[in-house]
Specification:
- It contains 19 helices and 16 strands.
- The chain has 450 residues and is of the alpha/beta class.
- The strands form five sheets. The protein has a five-stranded parallel beta sheet with strand order 2-1-3-6-7, sandwiched between helices. A five-stranded parallel beta sheet has the order 9-10-13-8-14.
- A hairpin with an 8-residue loop joins strand 11 and strand 12.
- It is elongated, with a radius of gyration of 27 Å.
Amino acid sequence: MSVNRSDRRPRGELNRILVVDDEADIRELIDLTLSRMGLAAECAGSVAEAQAALAAGSFQLCLTDMRLPDGEGLEIVRHISEHYPQTPVAVITAFGSAGNAVAALKAGAFDYLAKPVGLEQLRALVKSALRLPDSAVENSALRALTGESSCMQQVREMIEKLARSQAPIYISGESGSGKELAARLIHARSARSSGPFVPVNCGAIPENLMESEFFGYRKGAFTGAESDRDGFFQAANGGTLFLDEVADLPLAMQVKLLRAIQEKRVRKVGNVTEEAVDMRIICATHRNLRDCVDKGSFRQDLYYRLNVIELRMPPLRERMEDIVPLVDSVLGKLCGEAPPRLSPDAIKALQLYSFPGNVRELENILERATALCAGDLIEADDLHLEPDEMGSGDLQGRGSETLDDYLNRLERQAILEALQKTEGNRTAAARLLGVTFRSLRYRLERLGIE
């Protein structure tokens, strides 16, 4: 049973920070900074001294240099991860040693600082670390990832671990598999949960606006810049920046993004000075990022900076045992306390379907079925799943048609059939389809049906 860190020291006692560095002036600088924050520092100059201090008492945070006289800071990171998992540890690396920082994050470090140590960044790191939630505290948000399949249990366990780190995360998975939901859960479980979560669709931003959108701009920087404006990095300060479809970033923007992530500083368009930013980066894409690197469309150095830890979201076809609980969850959201039921044949049809659009497609199928079914029982025919799209997962029946076009075609067909049966009477057609007249009118406008 894990113990909350706030219960591991007498009431009124200061938070204790272990500082490990062989340079006396660095230890003194950090000690002074921590004392002004109302924290107590205990200093060690080697791996052996640090391990002895950890064995003698409890600490709420450890700051360690990477190079020590009798070993490396990675030894301390691994030692703490194994024996004191509730204690976050951050490493101090030499300027430009990105490889060491990545290695430390993969070994379990909470975050890193580059020399020369910036006091503003040091204070931000310490404040963030001391807000880390205890892993024993229950968080119902994780249950939003519906399903008890083994792969979903592994995803939830991974999210718990990732939430206790500041390491950049790369979430891979097909479209509709829940990548943004996973990112939001990592943020909600992290020490940054009180800060903003800023999602950005990298593929939806015009290339000529990317720099100003990401980093902000000063008044007069270009035509139309009538006032100062913050970018995504400033908006996410103190929280999490989620870069969705990061593979769509052009190479020129990838260079600027890499510098901003490494230096934790950005410069607004039209400004001559940089400003510090403190956020965690989580990125995602439905494409294979490694293939993009091999093809030259994505920078290798940025790939290694973003892909410190990978979280894979499994496609729905790999967890068909979760179909029933997912159906219950989706119908509950769509219909409230009295949702329709699915017949055994309808459940079987869903379990045989390949779901190229994953959970998002399941939601669309059920939303359409609830609108078109007669009564409170959804039959297999109400799902409008083509036979050649079930079983083997053969998608040839759809040809080159996108998922949205396919679903719109089915919805258009159902509406036109209803209008034909009612001789164009929209009120009667809405009644036949089981939707309100207002809903039908909206669908007619959206589909362009006269």
